[in-house]
Design brief:
The protein has helices at 3-11, 14-18, 20-38, 40-44, 62-87, 97-106, 120-126, 131-138, 145-181, 190-196, 199-215, 230-257, 278-310, 318-335, 338-360. The chain is mostly helical. The longest helix is centred in the middle third of the chain and has 37 residues, at 145-181.
Length: 361
């Protein structure tokens, strides 16, 4: 979404400003901004805490990371998509598209499929957006919008960040760090590790996972003359939710049972101390991630806007995603904290969700 154009349009559209779909996300963005700015000093000092700089060498290598990447990107999506098609096809909502198709066949000449809003300009804009965003917008005038809303939030704000950070930061970046630094770092103190690290090793740790993460967000624009049905987009999103759950479950079980990984290898730190319970520490680290996301938010959306203006009609998601992933990878390199990068990813997806709600208005 182009937030600059969105703000300009909202300033001249009274109906949109009066809509709760616009007011509630705007209020949530203001609360998020205020709370993050209030914790600015805490976020800025995040890398100065000695305990947060522990970077263990994980007990797996690139072979395991590559296998988990194949499971995440190919095997789980394929299996879950086939399972949803075969077992749930009769139970998934059709959003009234079957009746529309019958009515269209009886008419001559048959009009080209259009967006439910009937707005051709909006449809051209939707063609370059993420399929989940297209589903959310196209379902707004259907009786199943509540169901779509729930699946959207579950997929984008909850399940996707948990699984993707586990795959790309914990497993893949952990393997890249092991390749860059080697096992000889096992007995070194964090301060010694940082002092001995050179730029080449740091880049080898951070850049490859970020590039792979950005590439997997690439795609082709949708054909405006033949848009994907809402029912198909809903099925794809539902399959994605199950695929992420299956991937995370298999990944954790494999690493714990076969590789003998411990909680610290998953970026969860050591056992809880008497001074601070583990649960409270993980919540604190999650919020720290939300604060750190604020630093990258203007740059990420500026890059997205710049590429949208320079390359209209193209899917430009990989460019801002790469910028975000590099910053996120650096944070994980410094903190080795899974809740922190999950907080960053949830912040990105949550603000994108709020901007999408404002666009729905």
């Amino acid at each position: 979404m182009n937030i600059f154009f969105l703000a300009a349009d909202a300033a001249t559209n009274v109906d949109q400003i009066d809509s709760l779909w616009f007011q509630i996300p705007l209020a949530a963005l203001c609360v998020y901004l205020f709370s993050s700015l209030a914790a600015w000093r805490f976020g800025f000092a995040v890398f100065k805490t000695r305990d947060d700089a522990r970077r263990a060498v994980v007990p797996w290598g690139l072979d395991v990371a590559f296998a988990m990447l194949i499971v995440f990107s190919i095997i789980s999506p394929a299996v879950c998509s086939m399972a949803i098609k075969k077992t749930c096809a009769d139970f998934l909502p059709t959003f009234g598209e079957e009746n529309a198709a019958v009515a269209t066949q009886e008419e001559e000449p048959a009009p080209a499929p259009t967006d439910p809003t009937g707005d051709a300009e909006e449809e051209r804009d939707l063609s370059t957006q993420h399929p989940v965003a297209r589903m959310f917008i196209r379902a707004k005038n259907t009786p199943y919008f509540g169901l779509v809303f729930g699946v959207f939030v579950l997929s984008v704000v909850v399940v996707a960040p948990l699984t993707e950070e586990l795959v790309f930061r914990v497993v893949l970046q952990g393997a890249c760090e092991r390749l860059a630094f080697g096992r000889e770092r096992d007995d070194e103190e964090p301060e010694a590790r940082r002092s001995q690290a050179n730029l080449g090793k740091v880049l080898l740790t951070i850049v490859p996972p970020a590039i792979v993460f950005a590439i997997l967000h690439a795609g082709s624009p949708e054909d405006p003359e033949n848009p994907t049905l809402v029912s198909e987009l809903f099925r794809q999103t539902l399959s994605s939710v199950f695929a992420n759950v299956v991937t995370a479950t298999f990944l954790v079980a494999f690493l714990v049972k076969i590789v003998r990984a411990q909680s610290s290898d998953f970026g969860l730190g050591e056992e809880a101390s008497n001074r601070e319970p583990r649960g409270a520490r993980l919540v604190k680290e999650f919020y720290r991630g939300a604060v750190l996301y604020l630093y990258s938010m203007p740059i990420v959306y500026f890059v997205k806007t710049a590429f949208q203006l320079a390359l209209p009609g193209y899917v430009v998601d990989p460019a801002p995603i790469l910028v975000f992933a590099l910053w996120e990878g650096f944070v994980y390199y410094k903190t080795h904290s899974y809740p922190t990068v999950v907080g960053m990813h949830v912040g990105l997806n949550f603000t994108s969700f709020l901007f999408l709600c404002m666009q729905v208005a």
